[in-house]
Amino acid sequence: MRLPEVSRTIQVPDDITLSVEGKKVTVKGAKGSLTRDFSYATIEIESQEKTVRVLAKWPRKKETALVGTLFSHINNMITGVTKGYTYKLKIVFSHFPITVKTQNKSILIENFTGERKPRKVEILGDVKVKIEPDDVILTGINLEDVSQTAANIEQATKVRGKDPRVFLDGIYTYERNEGMA
Question: Above pLDDT 90, what percent of the chain?
Fold first, then answer.
């Protein structure tokens, strides 16, 4: 049975400016500004003063799911411009000491399992990278950029062709937080 309407409502905090033009959502806060275009979605986004409503009329299963997805994306944008996001990654090695450096908009992982050529990972968006002796700390206001950069670092240091129970070397995410360090 299809429902006549599915909707979710977001209360916008007082210190946030949120504007909706068509299906383009812009959120401005203390930490910065984020803009996202949801024109691919077949649902409506309405804004009235300090509330935003994501709704679908006579939705099928996919549109019902998309209402929740866009609701979460807009909430993540609001959290990002107020608190920000921090991911902490641990540098683990037992065989060869791994060296991590930043160069322009990329991270270089040197001496991973004794390799001569460094592995290179691109830094997405406006993610800030801080390298400590055995940690890599990623901070930013866009959750997708911070989490995808962390995932790309983990994937770049995945051990292939060796027994993963013996070669535990790599860079692994161990903490995810709202709020920048």
Answer: 82
Q: Extract long-range pairs of 103-111: CB within 8 Å, 24+ residues apart.
A: 107/136, 107/153, 109/153, 109/156, 109/157, 109/171
44-48, strands of its sheet edge to edge = 5-11, 51-57, 44-48
Nearest in space to 140 (alpha carbons), one of 153, 154, 123: 123
Cα 23 off chain centre by: 21
Q: Which of 107, 114, 101, 99 is nearest to 167 (CA)?
A: 114
Mean pLDDT of 39-43: 90
- Look at 20-24, 48-52, 162-166 and tell me which has the smallest mean pLDDT: 162-166
Tens digit of each residue's pLDDT (9 = 90 or more) over 85-121: 999 999 999 888 999 999 999 999 999 989 999 999 9
Query: Residue 96 in contact with residue 112, Cβ under 8 Å?
Result: yes
Domains and CATH numbers, the chain: 5-82 (3.90.930.12), 85-178 (3.90.930.12)
Nearest to 150 by CA among 73, 72, 85: 85
- CA separation (Å) from 108 to 47, 103, 117? 44, 7, 10
| Total-model pTM | 0.90
